[in-house]
Amino acid sequence: MTYALEAKGIVRRYGHVEALRGCNFNVKPGEVTALIGDNGAGKSTLVRILSGAEQPDEGEILIEGKAVHFNSPSDSRNFGIETVFQDLALCPHLNAVQNMYLGREVPRKGILGKLGFLDHEVMRQGSEDAFRDLGATVRSLTASTGSMSGGQRQSIAVARSAAWATKVLFFDEPTAALGVVQKKNVLNLVRRVRDKGIGIVFISHSMPEVLEISDRVQVMRRGLTIADYKTSETNLEELVGAMTGRLDEASK
Amino acid sequence: MSMFTNTNGDPKSDFGILAEEKESFLKRIPKTQTFQIVSVLFVITAIFSAIAPSTFFTLFNLRNIIINISVFAVLGVGMTFVIITAGIDLSVGSVLVFSSVIACKAIVAAGAKGWGTTFMGIFVAVAVATAWGALNGWLVSIAKVPAFIVTLGSLSAALGVSQIITGGIDLRGATPELVNKIGFGNVYKQIPVLGVIAVVVVILGGILLHKTKFGLLTYAVGSNTEACRRVGINVNRQLIYVYSLMGFTAGIGGIMSLAMYQQTTIAGQSNTALTVIAGVVIGGTSLFGGYGTIFGTMIGLFIPIVLQTGFIIIGVVPFWQNVVVGVFLVAAVYVDNARRNAADGGGKSLKKRSKKSTS
Q1: B359 and A44: CB-CB below 8 Å?
Q2: Which of A135, B120, B199, B330 has the smallest number of Cβ neighbours within 10 A?
Q3: Distance between alpha carbon B39 and the CA centroid of its chain, in Å?
Q4: Which tens digits make up the pLDDT trace of A101-139?
Q5: Residue B160 distance to chain A (closest CA, Å)
Q6: How many angstroms separate the CA atoms of A28 and A198, rounded?
């Protein structure tokens, strides 16, 4: 089975500090891969590299087996890779539809489109479809997202990324700021996106959540992926042990 | 796989909630700041009309008010865009002077008469001011100098360059066409050409802001710059365009002022930026970006001018106008803040969270 996204031997240095030291990572389509690791393990750096925000010093990135090079976040998006950020990256003054199509506005046909007029009907319909697709609870398409609850904003952010992602979707601590009910909703959204055949990378500090949602868990420590578990064959102690390095010490 | 089944059941059942919560349009209107400010303008006008019914509401006064406001209205269009991006432009008055000085020089060099020379002058004024606006935009977006400082620098530098060129003495050099047909001209009876130019600029500006992608991106950049960068919007380019548009309107203002006064106004524009900014803010545009309307700006500009005219007519010392405008300005920002806090969980908490999110 080819990987939706694969990173091989990624090295990233900041001055004398090696944040990533030959890190490997992979995601299969239609599977939730959790990426865990303590603070400073290099998760954020790896995600920034895989989403095109930073470039690796060494190593290669493959999409469906073909080597690619990202110069900017737009590059990775063009390959169908999207990210749901912890802070959601929505414009609070804009409504759900405008946020949905932010940076991808659909122009009207003909001369009016050339003049910069937008096709609101197409975008409204597209957003409605995307929300329905995920069963996302969005109360209003016309209210500003800033006036909505955290859970609703989350739904919009997830629906936006899911609608544009064709291969891989990153969730960067998607539940960190949410209540119990909203967390459950987000996990349901994650499952629905996965069921569309998209590879999902789920980054979280919450081990119970990781164990609930993921199919595989890859553990990072000190700039390396040190373990790759099947979720069904691992447990909390093993994950925490791998993250903190207790396993290394035990094996010495 | 059973643990992954959809615990929420049929996804469409969730979606049922999506039916718009329709708060009736009539109920929503009184809550908008635009409505509040229109009411204020209406009340002021009504008071003056009641005190001096014979003089205040005559066509002559309306014409005067329109001419007074036309340059500010044009500048207000550009300023609304800039403030919606959470920026500011203190340099409009100086850029206006600079563009009119250069245009005046060009017109004199070309013989100072004829429509050809007039249009050349208009083009020069607009081009020069747009270029200065682009420079402001470049400094704000790419050089990352705060807009307040960039335009404070431009305020000083553009006026300084104008003074160097002219030796500090105002230039006379408008073509007769510019003065007679545009400055004092009427399109029809008592409808001044300058007013019509302003209305056209305002309408085009309103369409650009509220109906096009350019306008949407302007709101988006002001609302959450980081989110725009992440979705691949070229934020720097948008900012340069917005400040260039501000310059463009300053250039139109420059040529309008040249037509009105038949000479440059080197010493006369020191308060222009503040008047325009006050109008934009009184009109409900948020200094924190992301929200504002061209219509609100126009109402916000009308209030000081109506007050001024009204005070003169009813015999109050016109200096009171400055006091009242000052109070209005502070009150407008207070109302804006109160509303933003009331809509909590909105822009503010988003920003707070993004600061924390470094894992």
Answers
A1: yes
A2: B330
A3: 21
A4: 998 899 999 889 888 999 999 999 999 888 887 777 777
A5: 38
A6: 8
